[in-house]
Request: fold
Amino acid sequence: MTKVTSLDIADLAGVSQSTVSRALRESPLVNPQTRRRIQLIAREHNYKVDISASNLRSKHSRTIAMLVHQESEMDSDINPFFVSMLASITRAAAARNYDVLLSFQQLSENWIVDYQNSNKAEGIILLGYGGYTDYIRKAELLDDAHVLTWGPVIEGQPGHFIGCDNRQGGYIATRHLLSLGHRLIAFLGDISDDCPEIQDRYFGYRKALGEAGIRQDEALQAPATPAERSGYLAAQELLSRDVEFSAVFCSSDLSALGAVKAFREGKLSVPADISVVGFDDIPAVSYTTPALTTVRQNTAKAGEIMVDVLLRLVNGHTVQSQLIEPELTIRASCRPY
Amino acid sequence: MTKVTSLDIADLAGVSQSTVSRALRESPLVNPQTRRRIQLIAREHNYKVDISASNLRSKHSRTIAMLVHQESEMDSDINPFFVSMLASITRAAAARNYDVLLSFQQLSENWIVDYQNSNKAEGIILLGYGGYTDYIRKAELLDDAHVLTWGPVIEGQPGHFIGCDNRQGGYIATRHLLSLGHRLIAFLGDISDDCPEIQDRYFGYRKALGEAGIRQDEALQAPATPAERSGYLAAQELLSRDVEFSAVFCSSDLSALGAVKAFREGKLSVPADISVVGFDDIPAVSYTTPALTTVRQNTAKAGEIMVDVLLRLVNGHTVQSQLIEPELTIRASCRPY
DNA sequence: CTGAAAGCGCTTACAG
DNA sequence: CTGAAAGCGCTTACAG
Reply:
C-alpha cells in the first residue's frame, strides 16, 4: 500500500492540491462545503498531512523538547513533582497542538544546538536543573536560545525561568504553624547556595518567625535533600540533638514523608506530638496517614504557563521570568499546640 | 541571522552539496580527509542537518512515540515503575539515535493513525495499558501498525507485547517465603480477568504453594490495586478477618508499602511479626525501613528490549512477544518463621 | 571518490 | 474562493 498524499485526496475530491492543503488547515479561504467534503474524504482514507513536508515548508516544527535532568545514568528515581510537571507540560503542549520530545540527560551546549538548529524543536524546557544554577549561568547560549527553565528566579540571572514563589511558600507554611500556637518550629532542608529554591523557602520561614518575634534557633535546622531517606535521617539528627520543638516545616514532601517515619519510630505521633508541613503537594501525600499538610505548587497551572511563555519566547516576544503563587493545603498533619 | 544550510557548508568547503550531505552522514564514499574537513566546518558554524528536510527525503523520522495511559486528566500520580520504564526507553532510544515523542492520554485509533500516517513517529510504545486488554483486543489496527505494548503476553492475542514473566515472579516470591519456613502466606492483589498481569503473579503464588503441599486459603487473599492506599486498606481488611498468616506477597511495591504501614499501625512489626515481599522494585523501596524484599523487573533491560523489538517491527521483521525474567531482590522485610 | 539533478510532500505568495 | 507554480533543504540514484 502506497502512501496517500494530498494529491490523491485532491484527485478524489476533484479539486487542486492547494485547496486540499488549505481545507485541512481550516483556512477560511476555502468554501465551507468544499472544506467539509475534503476533510471527510481525507478521514475516510486515513490521510494525514506529512509532518516532515509540512515542517520543512512552513519552517515550524510545532514541537518542544523537554530535558529532564538526571544526575546519573542509573538513577531512575525522579521526584514525583517533576513527573507531574512533565505530564502537565505535555498536556498543555498538546492542547496547543504541540508535540513534546523527551530526553533525560545532562544539559550540554551541544544538545541545545542540536535541537534548535536541526529544527527538531522550536524551544526547550529544562526540568530538575535546580542545583545547576552555576552551569546555566555560564551558558550564554541560553539567552538567545529558546530555553525555559523551571527553577529559582534570581535577580540579574541570564536565561528565562519560571518557578514557585518559594519565599512566600515558606512564609505561609510557617505562618500556619504559628497560627496554631507553635513557637518552636524546626526547618528541614539544604540552605546552601547550591539550592536557591530551598534557601528561599528558608527565608520565608525566617521572615514569619521574625514577624512573630521568635529568634530562630540554629539547632532547629537540619539539612535534607528532597528524598524520603534524607528527611528520615535529618529528623533523626534533629531528635538526637535533644532540642525541643513541636513542629517541623519540611522543604519538600519527600523529606516530610521520611521525617514522619523517623518520628514514628521515635515513638512520637504526628500530629499529636509533632506537627509537620511539607512542600510540593505530590500526589502521594494526600493518601498517607496522616495526610500531609503541605504547600501546593500547582503543576497543572505551572505547565500551562511554561508552555505559554516558551511559545511567546519562540515567537520573538520578550518574556519575563515569573513566579507562581503557592497555596497552603491543609490536611491532617498539624494540630494546635 | 539567516539559516545555515548544507549549501553554505558546501561553499565554505569548496565541495558540492551532495558531498556535504554524505560527509555528515559518515558515508564511506567520501574521502576521509574531506569528510573530516567538512565536519569541522559544519561544527564551527553550528550547522545541523535540517531534520524535516532529511525526514521528508529519506522517509524516516528516527522518532518513536511513547503513549502513557492516564485514567483521568487530573491524575498525575503515575506509578514509579512506569516512570522508570519511560526513562529507560528514552535512553535506549537515544542510544540508537532515535528521538522520543511523549504523550499522556487514552489510546484511540485516531491517535495511532495520526502518529503513523503523519510520519511523526515510526512506531509507538504503549505504557500502562494493563487494564485495557479488551480495548486493545478490539483494535485490529494494532496488528499492522507498529505498536508495542508493555503488558501481559496472552496466547493468541493480536498486537505485540513485551512483559515480565509474572507467573515466574509470583513463583519465586512465594518460594522465597516458603524457604524461610512460612506456611500461611497471604496474597494482596486484584486477581480478576481485568488484570492479567496480577493474575499471573497469583498463579505463580498458587503454583509454589501447591508444590509445597499447601492448600490455598481464600481468606488469605485480598484485592488491591498498585497503589499505597489500596495496599493499606487491603492489609487492614486482612487483619480484620482474623485469619492467621505470617507472610504476605504483595503484587506491587506500592501496595506493599501501604500494607507495611497498616501492619505497623496494627502493632505488628515487619519483618518480626510479618514478612512482606513486593513486586516491581521501584526505586523507593530500597530506602524504606525495612528495605523491601521484592521481585525486580529490570526496567533498563526492558527498555532496551522494547526499543529493539519496536525497531525490528518498524523494519518489517516479524517479532515475537517476549517475556523478561524477573529476579528476586532480597532486602530486609522477611525473616524465617 | 565526487557532482549534477531529481524529487520527497507539503505551504504559500501570486494571479485570477 | 480556487489553481498553477515555486521552493523549503535535504538524500540518493545516476553518471563519471
